[in-house]
Protein backbone atom coordinates (compact mmCIF):
# COMPACT_ATOMS: atom_id res chain seq x y z
CA UNK A 1 0.00 0.00 0.00
CA UNK A 2 2.96 2.26 -0.66
CA UNK A 3 1.99 5.90 -1.08
CA UNK A 4 -1.72 5.28 -0.39
CA UNK A 5 -3.79 8.46 -0.35
CA UNK A 6 -4.95 9.76 3.03
CA UNK A 7 -7.91 11.86 4.07
CA UNK A 8 -7.72 13.53 7.48
CA UNK A 9 -11.09 13.78 9.26
CA UNK A 10 -11.37 16.32 12.08
CA UNK A 11 -14.54 16.42 14.20
CA UNK A 12 -14.95 20.06 15.25
CA UNK A 13 -16.99 21.74 17.96
CA UNK A 14 -15.65 25.22 18.64
CA UNK A 15 -11.98 25.58 19.61
CA UNK A 16 -11.04 27.78 16.66
CA UNK A 17 -7.51 28.49 17.90
CA UNK A 18 -6.72 24.82 18.52
CA UNK A 19 -8.09 23.87 15.12
CA UNK A 20 -5.91 26.44 13.37
CA UNK A 21 -2.90 25.05 15.19
CA UNK A 22 -3.76 21.53 14.02
CA UNK A 23 -4.20 22.66 10.41
CA UNK A 24 -0.77 24.27 10.58
CA UNK A 25 0.71 20.98 11.83
CA UNK A 26 -1.01 19.03 9.06
CA UNK A 27 0.53 21.37 6.50
CA UNK A 28 3.94 20.39 7.88
CA UNK A 29 3.41 16.61 7.51
CA UNK A 30 6.04 14.85 5.40
CA UNK A 31 3.42 12.41 4.07
CA UNK A 32 1.07 13.95 1.48
CA UNK A 33 -2.54 14.50 2.53
CA UNK A 34 -5.14 14.22 -0.22
CA UNK A 35 -7.84 16.11 1.67
CA UNK A 36 -8.62 17.57 5.07
CA UNK A 37 -12.28 17.20 6.08
CA UNK A 38 -13.56 19.24 9.03
CA UNK A 39 -16.90 17.94 10.30
CA UNK A 40 -18.48 20.84 12.14
CA UNK A 41 -20.84 20.01 15.01
CA UNK A 42 -22.45 23.46 15.12
CA UNK A 43 -19.45 25.57 16.17
CA UNK A 44 -20.23 29.11 17.25
CA UNK A 45 -16.74 30.62 17.36
CA UNK A 46 -15.89 30.72 13.66
CA UNK A 47 -14.02 27.39 13.68
CA UNK A 48 -15.76 26.14 10.51
CA UNK A 49 -15.06 29.33 8.61
CA UNK A 50 -11.44 29.29 9.72
CA UNK A 51 -11.06 25.71 8.48
CA UNK A 52 -12.42 26.68 5.06
CA UNK A 53 -10.11 29.65 4.86
CA UNK A 54 -7.19 27.32 5.51
CA UNK A 55 -8.01 24.83 2.76
CA UNK A 56 -10.16 22.25 4.51
CA UNK A 57 -13.45 20.98 3.13
CA UNK A 58 -16.11 21.59 5.76
CA UNK A 59 -19.23 19.49 6.28
CA UNK A 60 -21.69 21.32 8.53
CA UNK A 61 -23.97 19.19 10.69
CA UNK A 62 -25.79 22.26 12.01
CA UNK A 63 -25.85 21.09 15.64
CA UNK A 64 -23.73 19.09 18.06
CA UNK A 65 -24.72 15.56 17.02
CA UNK A 66 -21.79 13.93 18.83
CA UNK A 67 -18.32 12.74 18.00
CA UNK A 68 -19.51 9.43 16.55
CA UNK A 69 -21.84 11.08 14.06
CA UNK A 70 -19.11 13.49 12.98
CA UNK A 71 -16.64 10.64 12.40
CA UNK A 72 -19.20 8.65 10.41
CA UNK A 73 -19.98 11.64 8.19
CA UNK A 74 -16.27 12.07 7.55
CA UNK A 75 -15.75 8.39 6.73
CA UNK A 76 -18.75 8.44 4.37
CA UNK A 77 -17.28 11.44 2.55
CA UNK A 78 -13.79 9.93 2.36
CA UNK A 79 -12.51 9.17 -1.15
CA UNK A 80 -9.17 7.61 -0.22
CA UNK A 81 -7.91 4.20 0.89
CA UNK A 82 -6.73 5.54 4.26
CA UNK A 83 -8.47 7.85 6.70
CA UNK A 84 -6.89 9.54 9.70
CA UNK A 85 -9.13 10.56 12.60
CA UNK A 86 -7.66 13.50 14.49
CA UNK A 87 -9.15 15.51 17.34
CA UNK A 88 -9.01 19.25 16.80
CA UNK A 89 -6.85 19.73 19.91
CA UNK A 90 -4.02 17.49 18.64
CA UNK A 91 -0.60 18.62 17.38
CA UNK A 92 1.16 15.87 15.38
CA UNK A 93 4.89 15.99 14.74
CA UNK A 94 5.92 16.26 11.04
CA UNK A 95 6.69 12.52 10.68
CA UNK A 96 3.55 11.38 12.51
CA UNK A 97 1.46 10.46 9.48
CA UNK A 98 4.36 8.98 7.51
CA UNK A 99 5.22 6.61 10.35
CA UNK A 100 1.63 5.47 10.78
CA UNK A 101 1.25 4.97 7.02
CA UNK A 102 4.43 2.87 6.99
CA UNK A 103 2.84 0.53 9.55
CA UNK A 104 -0.09 -0.02 7.20
CA UNK A 105 2.27 -1.25 4.46
CA UNK A 106 1.57 -4.69 5.91
CA UNK A 107 -1.81 -6.10 4.89
CA UNK A 108 -2.00 -7.64 8.37
CA UNK A 109 -2.39 -4.16 9.88
CA UNK A 110 -5.76 -2.41 9.65
CA UNK A 111 -5.08 0.63 11.83
CA UNK A 112 -2.23 2.35 13.61
CA UNK A 113 -1.80 4.83 16.41
CA UNK A 114 1.24 6.45 17.96
CA UNK A 115 2.48 7.83 21.24
CA UNK A 116 0.27 10.73 22.32
CA UNK A 117 1.89 13.07 24.84
CA UNK A 118 0.26 15.80 26.88
CA UNK A 119 0.42 19.20 25.20
CA UNK A 120 0.50 20.78 28.68
CA UNK A 121 3.44 18.70 29.97
CA UNK A 122 5.25 16.96 27.13
CA UNK A 123 6.97 14.58 29.52
CA UNK A 124 3.64 12.94 30.36
CA UNK A 125 1.74 10.30 28.41
CA UNK A 126 -1.73 11.34 27.30
CA UNK A 127 -2.37 7.96 25.72
CA UNK A 128 -0.97 5.08 23.72
CA UNK A 129 -3.62 2.45 23.02
CA UNK A 130 -6.76 1.25 24.76
CA UNK A 131 -7.31 -1.71 27.07
CA UNK A 132 -10.52 -2.76 28.81
CA UNK A 133 -11.18 -4.71 31.99
CA UNK A 134 -13.84 -7.32 32.72
CA UNK A 135 -15.77 -4.46 34.33
CA UNK A 136 -16.08 -2.72 30.93
CA UNK A 137 -13.94 0.12 32.26
CA UNK A 138 -11.32 1.21 29.76
CA UNK A 139 -7.77 2.34 30.45
CA UNK A 140 -5.68 4.26 27.96
CA UNK A 141 -2.31 2.70 28.69
CA UNK A 142 0.03 5.11 30.45
CA UNK A 143 -2.35 8.04 30.67
CA UNK A 144 -1.03 10.68 33.05
CA UNK A 145 2.28 8.89 33.67
CA UNK A 146 5.82 10.00 32.81
CA UNK A 147 7.02 8.89 29.40
CA UNK A 148 9.53 6.05 29.48
CA UNK A 149 10.67 2.71 28.04
CA UNK A 150 7.29 1.07 28.78
CA UNK A 151 5.69 3.23 26.09
CA UNK A 152 8.56 3.28 23.59
CA UNK A 153 8.21 -0.20 22.08
CA UNK A 154 6.08 -0.63 18.95
CA UNK A 155 3.73 -3.62 19.06
CA UNK A 156 0.54 -5.23 17.81
CA UNK A 157 -2.63 -3.87 19.41
CA UNK A 158 -6.37 -4.53 19.35
CA UNK A 159 -7.83 -1.06 20.04
CA UNK A 160 -6.74 2.43 18.99
CA UNK A 161 -8.02 5.67 20.51
CA UNK A 162 -9.79 7.87 17.98
CA UNK A 163 -7.81 10.85 19.32
CA UNK A 164 -5.22 10.51 16.56
CA UNK A 165 -5.09 7.31 14.51
CA UNK A 166 -4.92 6.05 10.93
CA UNK A 167 -7.30 3.42 9.53
CA UNK A 168 -7.92 1.58 6.32
CA UNK A 169 -11.18 3.08 5.08
CA UNK A 170 -12.34 -0.44 4.21
CA UNK A 171 -12.28 -1.32 7.92
CA UNK A 172 -15.36 0.83 8.52
CA UNK A 173 -17.24 -1.25 5.96
CA UNK A 174 -16.10 -4.56 7.42
CA UNK A 175 -16.30 -3.81 11.17
CA UNK A 176 -19.03 -1.16 10.93
CA UNK A 177 -19.06 2.56 11.62
CA UNK A 178 -18.88 4.21 15.02
CA UNK A 179 -22.05 3.50 17.00
CA UNK A 180 -23.89 6.81 17.18
CA UNK A 181 -25.84 5.73 20.27
CA UNK A 182 -22.59 6.32 22.19
CA UNK A 183 -22.47 9.94 20.94
CA UNK A 184 -19.09 10.74 22.52
CA UNK A 185 -16.74 8.75 24.81
CA UNK A 186 -15.99 5.03 24.59
CA UNK A 187 -17.27 4.91 21.01
CA UNK A 188 -13.72 4.02 19.97
CA UNK A 189 -13.57 1.25 22.59
CA UNK A 190 -16.81 -0.19 21.21
CA UNK A 191 -15.32 -0.02 17.71
CA UNK A 192 -12.09 -1.56 18.97
CA UNK A 193 -13.92 -4.48 20.53
CA UNK A 194 -15.66 -5.13 17.22
CA UNK A 195 -12.30 -5.03 15.45
CA UNK A 196 -10.76 -7.40 17.96
CA UNK A 197 -13.66 -9.85 17.70
CA UNK A 198 -13.43 -9.66 13.94
CA UNK A 199 -9.70 -10.37 13.90
CA UNK A 200 -8.68 -6.92 12.61
CA UNK A 201 -5.33 -6.12 14.20
CA UNK A 202 -3.62 -2.78 14.61
CA UNK A 203 -0.17 -1.43 15.38
CA UNK A 204 1.15 0.88 18.06
CA UNK A 205 3.94 2.95 16.49
CA UNK A 206 5.99 4.36 19.34
CA UNK A 207 7.89 6.94 17.29
CA UNK A 208 4.75 8.44 15.71
CA UNK A 209 4.39 11.34 18.14
CA UNK A 210 1.49 13.73 18.66
CA UNK A 211 0.54 16.09 21.48
CA UNK A 212 -2.97 16.36 22.89
CA UNK A 213 -4.54 19.18 24.85
CA UNK A 214 -7.12 16.80 26.27
CA UNK A 215 -10.81 17.38 27.07
CA UNK A 216 -10.65 20.75 25.37
CA UNK A 217 -14.39 20.92 24.66
CA UNK A 218 -15.94 20.21 28.07
CA UNK A 219 -13.21 19.20 30.52
CA UNK A 220 -12.30 15.75 31.81
CA UNK A 221 -14.60 15.81 34.85
CA UNK A 222 -17.35 17.97 33.41
CA UNK A 223 -20.70 16.48 34.55
CA UNK A 224 -21.79 15.93 30.95
CA UNK A 225 -18.56 14.05 30.21
CA UNK A 226 -18.89 11.86 33.32
CA UNK A 227 -22.55 11.16 32.65
CA UNK A 228 -21.83 9.96 29.11
CA UNK A 229 -18.88 7.80 30.15
CA UNK A 230 -20.92 6.21 32.96
CA UNK A 231 -23.80 5.54 30.57
CA UNK A 232 -21.55 4.17 27.84
CA UNK A 233 -19.85 1.76 30.23
CA UNK A 234 -23.29 0.19 30.66
CA UNK A 235 -23.82 0.26 26.89
CA UNK A 236 -20.60 -1.72 26.41
CA UNK A 237 -21.88 -4.39 28.78
CA UNK A 238 -25.31 -4.49 27.17
CA UNK A 239 -23.96 -4.61 23.64
CA UNK A 240 -21.03 -7.00 23.94
CA UNK A 241 -21.40 -9.26 26.99
CA UNK A 242 -23.39 -12.48 26.51
CA UNK A 243 -25.70 -13.40 29.38
CA UNK A 244 -23.37 -16.14 30.58
CA UNK A 245 -20.43 -13.75 30.78
CA UNK A 246 -22.49 -11.21 32.72
CA UNK A 247 -23.38 -13.90 35.26
CA UNK A 248 -19.81 -15.13 35.47
CA UNK A 249 -18.23 -11.69 35.86
CA UNK A 250 -20.86 -9.89 37.95
CA UNK A 251 -18.40 -9.25 40.79
CA UNK A 252 -15.59 -7.62 38.73
CA UNK A 253 -18.27 -5.58 36.92
CA UNK A 254 -19.75 -4.36 40.19
CA UNK A 255 -16.32 -3.61 41.70
CA UNK A 256 -14.89 -1.86 38.64
CA UNK A 257 -17.86 0.36 37.95
CA UNK A 258 -18.40 1.23 41.61
CA UNK A 259 -14.75 2.24 41.96
CA UNK A 260 -15.07 4.41 38.86
CA UNK A 261 -18.04 6.07 40.56
CA UNK A 262 -15.89 6.79 43.59
CA UNK A 263 -13.32 8.44 41.31
CA UNK A 264 -16.09 10.60 39.85
CA UNK A 265 -17.34 11.45 43.34
CA UNK A 266 -13.83 12.48 44.34
CA UNK A 267 -13.87 14.95 41.43
CA UNK A 268 -17.27 16.36 42.37
CA UNK A 269 -19.16 14.44 39.69
CA UNK A 270 -20.86 11.73 41.74
CA UNK A 271 -24.37 12.84 40.76
CA UNK A 272 -23.44 12.86 37.07
CA UNK A 273 -22.08 9.32 37.45
CA UNK A 274 -25.33 8.15 39.07
CA UNK A 275 -27.44 9.77 36.35
CA UNK A 276 -25.28 8.16 33.68
CA UNK A 277 -25.82 4.72 35.19
CA UNK A 278 -29.54 5.42 35.29
CA UNK A 279 -29.45 6.42 31.62
CA UNK A 280 -27.64 3.19 30.83
CA UNK A 281 -30.11 1.10 32.81
CA UNK A 282 -33.05 2.72 31.03
CA UNK A 283 -31.54 1.69 27.72
CA UNK A 284 -30.49 -1.79 28.85
CA UNK A 285 -33.47 -3.81 27.61
CA UNK A 286 -33.47 -1.99 24.29
CA UNK A 287 -29.83 -2.89 23.76
CA UNK A 288 -30.35 -6.52 24.73
CA UNK A 289 -33.27 -6.85 22.29
CA UNK A 290 -31.44 -5.01 19.52
CA UNK A 291 -28.05 -6.72 19.78
CA UNK A 292 -27.71 -10.47 19.66
CA UNK A 293 -24.36 -11.63 21.03
CA UNK A 294 -23.11 -14.25 18.59
CA UNK A 295 -21.02 -17.35 19.23
CA UNK A 296 -17.84 -15.42 18.45
CA UNK A 297 -18.51 -13.07 21.36
CA UNK A 298 -19.41 -15.94 23.67
CA UNK A 299 -16.15 -17.74 22.93
CA UNK A 300 -13.64 -15.01 22.05
CA UNK A 301 -14.64 -12.10 24.26
CA UNK A 302 -13.74 -13.76 27.60
CA UNK A 303 -10.25 -14.53 26.26
CA UNK A 304 -9.83 -10.98 24.93
CA UNK A 305 -10.87 -9.49 28.26
CA UNK A 306 -8.50 -11.83 30.06
CA UNK A 307 -5.62 -10.71 27.84
CA UNK A 308 -6.47 -7.01 28.20
CA UNK A 309 -6.79 -7.25 31.97
CA UNK A 310 -3.56 -9.20 32.30
CA UNK A 311 -1.74 -6.46 30.41
CA UNK A 312 -3.29 -3.76 32.60
CA UNK A 313 -2.15 -5.62 35.73
CA UNK A 314 1.36 -6.17 34.38
CA UNK A 315 1.85 -2.54 33.33
CA UNK A 316 0.48 -1.29 36.63
CA UNK A 317 2.82 -3.62 38.49
CA UNK A 318 5.86 -2.47 36.48
CA UNK A 319 5.15 1.26 36.64
CA UNK A 320 3.32 1.63 39.96
CA UNK A 321 -0.33 1.04 40.73
CA UNK A 322 -3.00 3.71 40.45
CA UNK A 323 -5.25 3.36 43.49
CA UNK A 324 -8.22 2.44 41.28
CA UNK A 325 -6.44 -0.53 39.75
CA UNK A 326 -4.77 -1.51 43.01
CA UNK A 327 -8.13 -1.82 44.75
CA UNK A 328 -9.76 -3.40 41.71
CA UNK A 329 -7.20 -6.20 41.45
CA UNK A 330 -7.15 -6.67 45.21
CA UNK A 331 -10.93 -7.17 45.31
CA UNK A 332 -11.18 -9.28 42.15
CA UNK A 333 -8.13 -11.50 42.84
CA UNK A 334 -6.12 -9.89 40.03
CA UNK A 335 -6.20 -10.66 36.34
CA UNK A 336 -7.53 -14.12 35.50
Name its key features:
336 residues; alpha/beta; Spore Coat Polysaccharide Biosynthesis Protein SpsA, Chain A; two-stranded antiparallel ribbon; 12 helices; 45% helix; 19% strand; globular
Structural commentary:
It is a single chain. It is built from 12 helices and 12 strands. With 336 residues, the protein is α/β, with parallel strands linked by helices. The protein has 2 domains: 6-212, Spore Coat Polysaccharide Biosynthesis Protein SpsA, Chain A (Alpha-Beta Complex), CATH 3.90.550.10; 223-331, no CATH class. The strands form 2 sheets. Strands 1, 2, 3, 4, 5, 6, 7, 10, 11 and 12 form a 10-stranded mixed sheet that branches. A two-stranded antiparallel ribbon has the order 8-9. It starts with 5 loop residues before the first strand and ends in a 5-residue tail after the last helix.
| Average pLDDT metric | 92
In terms of structural class, how would the helical and strand content be classed?
Answer: alpha/beta
The total domain count is: 2
Helix content: 40-55%
Summarize the structure.
Helix 7 (223-240) packs parallel to helix 10 (270-290) and helix 9 packs antiparallel against helix 10.
Layout of strands and helices, then pairs:
Layout: E1 6-12, H1 16-27, E2 35-40, H2 47-53, E3 57-60, H3 67-77, E4 82-86, E5 90-92, H4 96-103, E6 109-118, E7 125-127, E8 130-132, E9 138-140, E10 155-157, E11 164-168, H5 171-174, H6 187-198, E12 201-212, H7 223-240, H8 243-248, H9 250-266, H10 270-290, H11 295-319, H12 323-331
Parallel strand pairs: 1-2, 1-4, 2-3, 6-12
Antiparallel strand pairs: 4-11, 5-12, 6-7, 6-11, 8-9, 10-12
